[in-house]
Structure formats: structure tokens, C-alpha cells
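REQUEST ID: PR-0412
SUBMITTED BY: lab tech R.K.
PRIORITY: routine
TASK: structure prediction, single protein chain
INPUT:
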Amino acid sequence: MTAPPVSALVDLRTEVGAVRLANPIMTASGTSGHGAELNSYFALSDLGAVVVKSVSADAWPGNPAPRLYPLPGDAGMLNSVGLQNRGMADWLDTDLPKLARTGATVVVSIWGFSTDSYRRAAAAVAAARLSRRPGCERLVAVEANISCPNVEDRRSMFAHSCQGVSDAVGAAAEGLAGVVPLWVKLSPNVTDLPVMAGAALAAGADALTMINTVMGMAIDPGDGSFRLGGGGGGLSGPAVHPVAVRAVYECRSAHPTAPIIGVGGVTTGVDAAELIAAGADAVQVGTATFADPRAPARILSELGGWCATHGISNIRELKGRAHDRR
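STATUS: complete
OUTPUT:
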């Protein structure tokens, strides 16, 4: 009789607030498509959840090409995709039912240029859930990506000020009306992230996702042109992992009871374990998926194996252990 894999001996079940997940590994918004694109590489139902690419109330074409710029070595990449999508109505009609049929647990990311856009996107999700539209039974949360340009404030980011955070989160919470939990994805490009996290929680966030990309730019010195069609972009991948670890650690210290999802440069099970030790309840895998579409499944297996070999029988034993050493 074949013995079960070592990772199977570890209880990986976790909770993000009221949302119970089979394990702490999810995809990160923007890196796994709008629906079931990755299901041909591994079973999406094996993950804790699939977080889809950000969807807005109305269709948006995104930024001009080129949209991706790989960095030298294994640092990661810059991207300026620009949140291209066909709008919430199309996503609910087309992508969600296909994704739900894989058995995946679904989190939909929303974004907008204005507070009204957040309100309308969230309200559309709430209405679909209440009317029991196909696929909505698999949808467990909404993640508001508030690191987006705000046309109400000269295209600055909602996530870069307490007032902006409060406005965007409040609008999303109003639209969602408590139908499913609201997670809020925060930007690292601020001077005091725990303060922004507090503003999000006060405005109605049920959980915090951190971090989004770090602002960056690449220029061809030969002719002075930008490497990305949109000029600047967002840095993601291994280079930002230490930034994400510190963000999770500091926000866990400042908000001990807040549900936290860690994301940023996760390429191995050890990276995921590090974010959980810093205080994350769950972890998202993003940029690694571009190089290896099976990365989320591999990292889940590696996390279970790492826990087993380090004497951890329940993932809760690992959560926040860095804070025990203060």
C-alpha cells in the first residue's frame, strides 16, 4: 500500500474572516485570467480560491502595447496591462459560469476610475448572487483593487490617501451591501501602510490583501523610449517579496484581528510559509504563473511538504509565528 504524500499529513484549512478555504493558496488577480484559463494545467478546485483579473462596471480597453517587460535575472517584471476587461455584465454571463464548472472557489476582483464605478461593480455582483445566477454559488468574496487611477482626484490612486481609501472602500461596501465579504487590495507605494489598512477596515473592509505592485519604470537608454507602452508600470515578482513580507508583518502588528492575505513575489512554498509566518491567513500566487502556469499547484504542494518536514501539523501553528519572537 502506497503511503500518502507527506503534505497530506498537514491540515491546511484556513479562514479569511468568514470565508473558509480548503487551503491558503490562491491565484492573484491579473495573473490567471478572467475565468478558467489555468484549469488545463491543474485542477483549479485544488486551490483555496481563484482570484480573477480585475473587472470594472464597464468595459475598458487597457493600455497600449508593449504591456510586459521582463527584468534581468529572476527579479520579476514590469507590467502596464491597464486592467483590460469586457465589463462586469459580460464576466457574469460568460466567464463566471465556466469557472464555476471547474469546482473552483471564486473571488472576483473589481476596480474603477471613480467611487461610483466601485459601487456599480459591487452592486452588480450582489444582484447576481442574490438572484442565483449560474456560477454565483461558487463566489465567496469580492476583492476591491483600489490601487487604480482616480479621475475624481487628478488620476491619483485611491489607495494613496486615507480619504481615497475610505471613499473607494465605502462605495464598494455600499454596493455589495454585505451579500459577500469585501476584501481590499492595498498599495505598498505609501509612507504608512498600516494607517491605510486601518482606513480600509473602518470603511467596511472585511479583509486586507497586500501588496499590489510597486511603481517602477524602464527606459531604453539608446533612444530614451519607455520599455512599456504606458510609460511607467508596476513591478512584481521576487524583487518585491521582502516588501510584501514587511507589509504583512507591520499590518498584522497594527491590526491583530484583521484577516490578511499576503501577495508579492511568491515562487516557492517557503515564500508562502514566510508570509504566513509574518501574519497572513492566506497567500496569493501571481507573477510566478507567467513563467510556470502550474506554479500555484506546485507551491501548494511545497507548502504542505515544508510544514510536514518542520513538524507543523496544522497551518494555524505557522500563522504569525514571527510575532512570537518580538
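NOTES: The longest strand covers residues 139-145.
REVIEWED BY: pending
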